[in-house]
Amino acid sequence: MSKIILGIDPGITKTGWALVKEEHGKYIVLKTFATSSPGANSSQRKRKKFPMQQLPDNKFQAGKQRANEHIIQLLETMTKYIDDVDKNIIEKIKGIYIESLQYLGGKSQNFNTLTQTSFYIGHISHYLTSINKPINFVNPTVWKKITGNAHADKQRVMRWVETITGYTPPNDHEADAVAIAIFGLNRTGAK
């Protein structure tokens, strides 16, 4: 019997999606895509400079506007891609696995980025409840262990996905989504 998992790698500039099927011990990538936020390319994004006394309010408003634009685009793209997927595939999805956020503190991570990404994850999760499948959140260091390294970089994950599935992901977001889906397929709860 085959199983299908939807894997999601959420992000502010791009969110990777992958439908992966396990059949007779082999992983088959059915569909991958990445949604982009408006002006995700930093060379396209024009940031307005504000005087210091105005920075907090204007920065919040600008961030809120970008977040709302991203959510609208995410929902439109999700609807398009989910509608394009064969309804028989949707019926066979056993679960949805979404990478959770991990805040390690310190200067290496931007708390604002984590906050916005959690906002997106909330909207993604809410939207996906419409297809009536269990949603699971998985820590990045947990799902990356399937590659042989809990702290695997993007290139290692991409090579691992290609080796395991024979599919060459077009970008690291889709590669992560495939790996997350494979992680989900290996979980006992996904059987």
Structural class: alpha/beta
Overall helicity: 40-55%
CATH class category name: Alpha Beta
| SSE topology string | EEEHHEHEHHH
Q: In terms of per-residue confidence, which ranges show pLDDT below 50 for 5 or more consecutive residues?
A: 41-58
Q: What's the architecture, going by CATH?
A: 2-Layer Sandwich
Give a count of the beta strands, DSSP E runs of length 2 or more. Answer: 5
Strand composition percent? 15-25%
Biggest sheet architecture:
5 strands, mixed
**What is the CATH superfamily classification?**
Ribonuclease H-like superfamily/Ribonuclease H
Detailed description of the structure:
The protein is of the alpha/beta class and 191 residues long. The chain has a single domain (3-40, 64-190), classed as Nucleotidyltransferase, domain 5 (2-Layer Sandwich). It contains six helices and five strands, in the order E-E-E-H-H-E-H-E-H-H-H. It has a five-stranded mixed β-sheet. A hairpin with a 4-residue loop joins strand 1 and strand 2. The longest helix has 30 residues, at 55-84. It starts with a strand and ends in a 5-residue tail after the last helix. Mean pLDDT is 76; it is low at 41-58.
Primary descriptors:
6 helices; Nucleotidyltransferase, domain 5; 191 residues; alpha/beta; five-stranded mixed sheet; 5 strands; globular
